[in-house]
Amino acid sequence: MKSIQAAGLVASVLALGLAPGCKQLDTRPNVGPCPVAATLYDASRVVELKGIARHENVGFTGSVEGIRAFCRYVGKDPIEMEIEISFAFGKGPKADGNSHAYPYFVAVTRRDRSILAKDVHSVNVQFPAGAARVDLKEKVEGIVIPRATETISGTNFEVLVGFDLTAEQLAYNRSGQRFTFNVDNGKVPAPAASPSPAPAGPPAAAQPAPK
Predict the structure, then answer these.
(1) DSSP 72-99
(2) pLDDT of residue 176
(3) How much is the average pLDDT of 28-44?
(4) Is the predicted pLDDT of residue 203 greater than 90, yes or no?
(5) What is the Cα–Cα distance from 157 to 31, expressed in whole angstroms?
(6) Res 13 pLDDT > 80
(7) Distance separating alpha carbons of residues 60 and 47, to the nearest angstrom
(8) Helix residue ranges per DSSP H, the chain
């Protein structure tokens, strides 16, 4: 990951570097819990639409299925983290080709959601012939969060993951819409009619009573 800079925290200017990897771990226990790693609802999915929101107009899609976080910090050391992101990617009827690049972000924030640092990555997905879904795991290593003092724990921070969306894709997610499936070109077949009973004939003429 690229190196990025974070804002000040607790009267200290903190640098949040994203290094090639973490140091070798020792056997001492962490001095506090790991930062929460999560995805934002607004950015947890991406839907490529080529027309109105119907299934036949869907191109490539993606969703964040889960995040696992691992961290290490002892004494006055910074918090060193890595995360594993589980993605599910889809290929709809309007998808162009068998491969697609999905940009996503990893951001470190305070618990009040003010951003300290953010970096954008991309995962290139190749769909095998005939496959409409691919599941992948991406590992992001070397997330380093300096601490102003040794009393600051991981509970003061969050690591947030999501797709790097266009304005239109973000608005679609925030609207809560889901694309709909077409059924017989939009026509729902009418239920079969029950057979009608045969019409009754005219009443038989009354016969005179025998004398």
Answers:
(1) E--TTPPEEEEEEEEEEEEE-TT--SSE
(2) 82
(3) 92
(4) no
(5) 15
(6) no
(7) 6
(8) 167-175
